[in-house]
Amino acid sequence: MQVKHTDSDTDGEEFVFETQTSTVETSRSERLRDFYEEFIYKPGLVALDDSRTLIGGVILFVFILIALVGTRVYPAPVTNQVERSLKPFETMNAPLGSNPSGTDLLAQVIHATPSMLILVTAGAVFSTFVAVFTGTVAGYKGGTTDRVITTISDIAMSIPGLPLVMVLAVTIKPENPAVVGILLTINYWSGLGRAIRSQVLTLREESYVEASRTMGVSTRRILTKDIIPNLMPYILVNFAFAARYCIFAGVGLYYLGVLPADLANWGLQLDSAYNDYSALVGSGSEYLVIVPMIPIALLSLSLVLLAQGLDRIFNPRVRTRMAGESESIEEDDDDVVHTGGV
């Protein structure tokens, strides 16, 4: 782009100067390529190199597939569905066996999966969102805002979680698994929020944050562009652990009969096995307890493995090293092709 400047000397003659200015604009394809490399290609390389991430991702994908497809393919559990008190693998009509009421245990496990995933996701999202919001705002703003939010989080941390959830569950009587998940993490966010606040106190003194603040960048943009991206590894790892907490808390409260019994849940299977069929008294029906414990353990294992893998995926040093190795391998392959393999 040319910009003309007009000047005149003492004799009144005008001179025209043309200044060349260059404008560098990032094309849409370049932005897409940068997004692909930063959020798909590099994390994918690290994930493929880590067996924990692969195993955890596959297990979680199987549960999601069961929730989306299995519930439509496999019949819903009902009384007198198959022969009563079948052992696991005794017949393919009920691969995991049946209880004394003739209900297929595999059907119970499959049809309890969607509500469990909704419960776990809702609880983890709620607790993580509240923790990130309160922690970043308190740590960055400081002053009165910090004192108020810190006081609220201290109060939430001081209240015993289990009695609080029990009182709220009896009062509200939630029927939606998402509401149950939120109730389970009603004060779980406070510990994570305090930890995030401590890290934000350090990040807000960094040079790039100070530069943004000096240029008049809004607080919301500083938090979303400068602060939170640097906390993403820590946030995602704690998201996985919050989801794991929801599994055990939900199953435990369903087992105790605190939460409503009209929602399909693996905890209700444990409660029924123990209270209705005395499966832990040596009656030979221990499989009634083992069957629902298997998906609980597998789903929890997948979240633990993913949490460990996410720590490597969002480690910039690991991502850069993996991407550099991949590019060097591709260059070596190209050299071999061009030289005829010599």
Descriptive account of the structure:
The protein has twelve helices and two strands; from the N terminus they run E-E-H-H-H-H-H-H-H-H-H-H-H-H. The chain has 342 residues and is mainly α. It has a two-stranded antiparallel ribbon. A hairpin with a 5-residue loop joins strand 1 (2-8) and strand 2. It starts with a strand and ends with a helix.
Lay out the secondary structure.
Layout: E1 2-8, E2 14-20, H1 28-49, H2 51-73, H3 105-141, H4 143-158, H5 161-172, H6 177-184, H7 189-203, H8 207-214, H9 219-256, H10 266-276, H11 287-313, H12 316-338
Antiparallel strand pairs: 1-2
Helix pairs in contact: 1-11, 1-12, 2-3, 2-11, 3-4, 3-6, 3-7, 3-9, 4-7, 7-9, 8-9, 9-10, 9-11, 10-11
Radius of gyration, in angstroms, nearest whole number: 29 Å
Kindly state the mean pLDDT as a whole number? 80
Can you list the strand order of the major beta sheet?
Answer: 1-2
Strand content: under 5%
Largest sheet: 2 strands, antiparallel
Q: Report the uncertain regions.
A: 15-25, 327-334, 336-342
Helical region count? 12
**What's the count of strands?**
2
Order of helices and strands: EEHHHHHHHHHHHH
Distance between the termini: 49 Å
Percent of residues in helices: over 70%
Structural class: mainly alpha
Shape: globular
